[in-house]
Amino acid sequence: MSATRAALPPKHEEVDAADRPADRRRGSTLLRHLAVVLAVGLLLVAVSYAVEPFRNFQLATVAAYLCATAGLTVLTGLNGQLSLGHGALMATGAYTVALCQNAFAERGMTGGWLLPLSLGAAIVSTVAVGAVVGVAAARLRGPYLAGVTLAVAVVVPALAVTFDGVFNGEQGLSVPVEPPPASLGPFFPYERWQLWLTGAATLLALLLLANLIRSRYGRTFRAVRDDEVAARLAGIHVARTQVLAFVVSAATAGLGGALLAVLAQSVSPGAFSLTLSLFLLMAVVIGGLGRLTGALWGAVLLVALPDLTHSATEVLTLSPAVAQRLEGNLPLAIFGLTLIVVMIAAPGGVQGLLSRLGRALLARWPARRS
């Protein structure tokens, strides 16, 4: 008996040996994600020098929207919760960063650390709102959940109009932002600096989301999405998981709204209407639910579609009133038609279609070589 016990390794050593492969996988996943983020960051810097200032501003807007669509992808695609109120969460982050920047300006405070502090405050305030909504959403299902998030999308912009002494009503608030650092040179384009700021914040958010999806929490998100009863029997706290998913999604939506406010240097209730929430949901469905790359396609569509509709109205010879009406309603109509076409032709969205095409090409490549 004593010889047998001596031959067996201690219990903690067995646990450590069992955990080492998982630790290696986590480490390799983190390193792989870091390598991708660094490569994309270097690519953005190179592109910012190659394109004109307006394109830099458009890319920065795509990055800001990507924060919101990536968070909504985690919530709807990975956890199965429907949200029609992410535009309101973006408004929460935008107004928070505006209030913080104005407070710093009134006190004469300057420095490059103020904007990250304001962005952090925007994330914290949106997390608080998302936690409250998430607790309510965890008790609801189906149309009731959609109704609660829809109410949030309507109420939050209305609060900005009601308390006009704080939020300045329909006119909104300005967002004072300091110019680029003097070390970059006196003629450094401001749009390029905007792209660097939003790109860095978005890449950091995507790095955290990508590692979250690959972690134990990501697996619990998918388990709850697939079958809540089975997840509960497996020992997963379903309500806590749903609240966590909503909080994570709200944090990225708040960051996206804050970045949009920094880019526009202003914030108003009209910029975060119910239409924006519908656009965000349709964008992640068209791009591909459950994939961060699908969220990227959705963000690109959110920025490219208004330009396309504006160009279309300029080509047509219409009266100013009709052109203005079309420019306001045409994007929603095109989004709806695109959603119908994508759901029929590619149920997995744009990214799902590209993935299938890539697998088909890889399957044919060995046959062609042979």
From TrEMBL:
The keyword Oxidoreductase does not apply. Residues 10-22 have a biased composition (Basic and acidic residues). This is Branched-chain amino acid ABC transporter permease. Keywords: Cell membrane, Membrane, Transmembrane, Transmembrane helix. Its main location: membrane. The chain crosses the membrane at residues 30-51, 57-75, 87-105, 117-137, 144-163, 193-213, 243-264, 270-289, 296-312, 332-354. Coiled coil: none annotated. InterPro entries: ABC_transp_permease (IPR001851), LivM-like (IPR043428). It holds the Pfam family BPD_transp_2. The keyword Membrane applies.
